Automatic annotation (TrEMBL):
This is Aldo-keto reductase. It comes from the Bacteria. One of its GO terms (cellular component) is cytosol. Its EC number is 1.1.1.107. The gene is pld1. GO terms for molecular function: pyridoxal 4-dehydrogenase activity. Pfam families: Aldo_ket_red. Residues 19-324 form the NADP-dependent oxidoreductase domain. Keywords: Oxidoreductase. The keyword Amino-acid biosynthesis does not apply. It comes from Yersinia pekkanenii. It is an enzyme of class 1 (oxidoreductase). InterPro entries: AKR, NAD(P)_OxRdtase_dom_sf, NADP_OxRdtase_dom. SUPFAM superfamilies: NAD(P)-linked oxidoreductase (SSF51430). The keyword Phosphoprotein does not apply.
């Protein structure tokens, strides 16, 4: 792993490691984590060759950036790739006494505002640098601009208009000045890649939980369009919030919540094929997205050292071609979806989109 194993990030000319860690769990989404344990987890990632780190102001309301920066700031800046996000500015809460950090189980006591304006993007970027204690990041993602956070269409359109009226220009200026190597958007929902590309030629999309071993519906309609237009793809949430790492168990999570019945049935089928080939389900989940030439990297979010150690082994676990073909034969991976180990996909050039 490390910087020796990289892929090009779309048409940017920038290379990124094929695997990295996200720091959402270290922002204490599911449980409080001591500073010692957080730093030990990041240290274990580094020792296992991880050189791509993704964070955001929203992760633990600043905690994720603080922890990532405290770990990385003494490292040689040329030895790793760092991404964070814009679109949320952290602010002092109106009522300090009664403020709740939910949905984070821990994190810091800061409120936030969504701001995708020219000034808001620049302020968010500079605030992130100070929380990180590092004066340069490589990639900026527009964060959580979708119907999950803006369920009313007009509210979503208003925020997209903020980007069109100045936010995109701020990001373009940062890139032109050499402050960042690339900018793009974090995607949580189907359809949003197209909505962004209809408005601006972004460099990269960080796709969370929507192109995984469990679901690939956006491949032909969105990932291939992004690739055609020169955008790179980074896949986050490769375990769909946990179930593809843990398998079926009482506390298995899917998209940060309980496991739906239909999803559980599909996971059981995936587990059965994995068992037949003695392939860890988590290994298949980590390696699957890189079967597509559109995908530059995959991210997973550890909360403890043991997860890093296990996933480093999973990422390098040998998986026979027959395993992927068995998943395709059972309809768990569609015919047009590229498989790891295949020759570079021709679907893009055959007009699938």
């Amino acid at each position: 792993m490390g910087l020796k194993n990289t892929r090009p990030l779309g048409a940017t000319g920038f290379q990124i490691p094929t695997v990295g860690v996200g720091t959402c769990p270290l922002g204490e989404l599911f449980e409080e984590i001591t500073e010692q344990d957080a730093q030990a987890t990041l240290e274990t990632a580094w020792d296992n060759g991880i050189r791509l780190y993704d964070t955001a102001p929203w992760y633990g309301r600043g905690q994720g950036e603080h922890r990532t920066g405290r770990f990385l700031y003494r490292k040689n800046r040329d030895d790793y790739v760092l991404s964070t996000k814009v679109g949320r500015r952290l602010v002092v809460p109106r009522s300090r006494k009664n403020f709740q950090t939910a949905p984070w189980q821990g994190g810091l006591a800061f409120d936030h505002v969504h701001d995708y304006t020219y000034d808001g993007i620049l302020r968010s970027y500079e605030d992130s640098l100070q929380r990180l204690g590092i004066n340069k990041v490589d990639i900026l993602y527009i964060h959580d601009l979708d119907t999950g956070y803006f369920p009313h269409e007009q509210d979503l359109l208003n925020k997209l208009k903020e980007l069109e009226s100045g936010g995109f220009r701020a990001l373009e200026e940062l890139k032109a000045a050499g402050e960042i190597a690339a900018f793009g958007a974090g995607i949580n929902e189907p359809g949003m890649i197209n909505r962004f590309l209809d408005r601006y030629p972004l460099d990269v999309f960080l796709v969370a939980s929507r192109y995984t071993l469990l679901e690939q519906e956006i491949y032909a309609d969105e990932l291939l369009r992004a690739q055609q237009q020169g955008a790179g793809i980074v896949i986050g949430g490769v375990f769909n919030s946990g179930v593809l790492a843990t398998g079926i168990q009482d506390d298995a999570r899917y998209d940060y919540g309980k496991l739906p019945v239909l999803v559980a049935d599909r996971v059981r089928k995936l587990q059965a094929v994995a068992a037949d080939f003695a392939v860890p389900l988590a290994a298949a989940a980590l390696q699957f997205p890189l079967g597509s030439s559109a995908v530059a990297s995959v991210l997973y979010g550890p909360s403890q050292q043991a997860e890093v150690t296990q996933n480093s082994a999973n990422f390098q676990h040998p998986i026979p071609a027959a395993f992927w073909l068995a998943l395709r034969d059972q309809g768990l991976i569609a015919e047009h979806i590229p498989l790891p180990g295949e020759a570079p996909s021709d679907y893009f050039y055959q007009g699938v989109i």
